[in-house]
Amino acid sequence: MNRFLFVLGKNWLLSLAELDHVLKNSIQFKGRITDYSANVAIVEFDDLHEVRLYINKLMELQYILGGCQKIAEIYDFIDIQTVHFAFPLQIEKYKQIEVKRKEILKVIDSSLKKVFPSIRRESLFFAVSIYPNLYDDNYYSEVLLKHFLPFLNKEIMTLLKENGAKKSLYYKYPQENIDAGNLNPIFPHHIIKYGLFNKDRAEIIFGFTEEGFYIARTLTCDDPSFKKHVDEEKPFKEFKSAISPKLSLIMLNFLNLFEQREKKIILDPFVGNGTILLFALIEDFQIFGTDINETKVKNTERNINWLLNELEETVPYMLNERIKRVDINQLSSVLKNERFDGICTEPELGPFYTQTPYYTEIVDLIESKLNPLFKATFRESFKVLAPKGRISIIAPVFSTIDGGEVQLRIEEMANFYKFKLVPMLDLNRIVNKSNNKLQFKQKHVRSILDAKKSQIVKRKIYVFEKIDESS
């Protein structure tokens, strides 16, 4: 069976969109999302099963994805009706519960023989991770955590011993989190810490959607410590407003440059302290960066040199000529000899507000500063981008005291400067869900918000493609 379970990041919609974009457009990872929840996506690849070392290919995919925590191989599936009969919110038919639980155990027993290549006379260790359809679902806190999880731990341990295991132990979650109903599954760093990729150890995932749950074993996971190290240990940083490593990777993937990345040239015309360029470098792109602020240019250059030293790689030829102080209005004249395959950037989003501003204050900010800045960005980007080149860009959404949310008319600007919007999620490829919280209200997801509800200035991600004037 060529099905795999992907554990999504906190912003499940953005993670889902990135994953679908890669599956749709990359040559080596062609596939389709067949089911999803707010925590997992089920993927069927076109021909990954034909690759002998498919785990290595999945590790490559994990490496380039910014919004995926884990990838697991699916062994079986239990429909949601069986689950609800076996573990109801209110117990009424005890005999039915017993029958349905035995059915579930039969499927789990069959899956365990695939999870562990060898069971007899082995000392085995496992960790159960339950990913619900929605974390705020009462069924998760009251049933899955308090009844299903203990059931799984006990019964899997028993089944392994019945199959001849010398010893069987499981990862114990903090009881206070289970009782409170706010337990998170184990994080990627726990998988590494407890050696759960070893043959005698495993993370067994029970991933729920509206349809039921999938039984899977984790094959690869994100390395958050590396991203954290790059983000926090670089010499120059700005935590208040800096873009995150994961969002940088996601935005880079929407440039649609998956093959021969070492030959593709990426530009960030608002480098800040260089986060996007650092992760573009990690992903093997050639990099260019500009900023009007001389200090930020120097900081970015130093951060890149630091990263190259950490990776024990040589400094690219004439790096100081690739990171320059440039006003966005002069971008095309300064870089007139360059053609970029993609632009990935977060322009200035305005002040860092500690208190919610008034509507008129934001309107004035947009008209006097942000509109000219973003217009210049699209105008100059068109001149330096290769044909059909893309720009992955963040625009601000402001919360105001007296006027609700206010944002730039970014699509209108882009269209004026001959860019067309690229929808971030093609709903012709994904079946909509019945739960309102998981539904897509429009035919295509045109842009995606990446922010907490309490944020005053929220990030909104857009992708645009340069219109081919020859067609």
* Backbone shape: globular
Mean pLDDT: 93
Number of domains: 2
CATH architecture of the largest domain: 3-Layer(aba) Sandwich
The proportion of residues in beta strands is 25-35%
Radius of gyration: 24 Å
Number of helices: 15
| CATH topology-level name of the largest domain | Rossmann fold
What does this structure look like?
The chain is of the alpha/beta class and about 475 residues long. The protein folds into 2 domains: about 5-220, VC0802-like (2-Layer Sandwich), CATH 3.30.2130.30; about 225-465, Rossmann fold (3-Layer(aba) Sandwich), CATH 3.40.50.150. It is about 35% helix and about 25% strand. It is built from 15 helices and 19 strands. The chain has helices spanning about 10-25, 55-65, 80-85, 95-115, 140-160, 175-180, 190-195, 225-235, 245-255, 275-280, 295-310, 320, 330-335, 360-385, 410-415; strands at about 5-10, 30-35, 40-45, 70-80, 125-130, 165-170, 200-210, 210-220, 265-270, 285-290, 325, 340-345, 385-400, 405, 420, 425, 445, 450, 455-465. The strands form 3 sheets. Strands 9, 10, 11, 12, 13, 14, 15, 18 and 19 form a 9-stranded mixed β-sheet that branches. Helix 4 packs across helix 5. The longest helix is centred in the C-terminal third of the chain and has 26 residues, at about 360-385. It is globular, with a radius of gyration of 24 Å. The two termini are about 40 Å apart. The mean pLDDT is about 95.
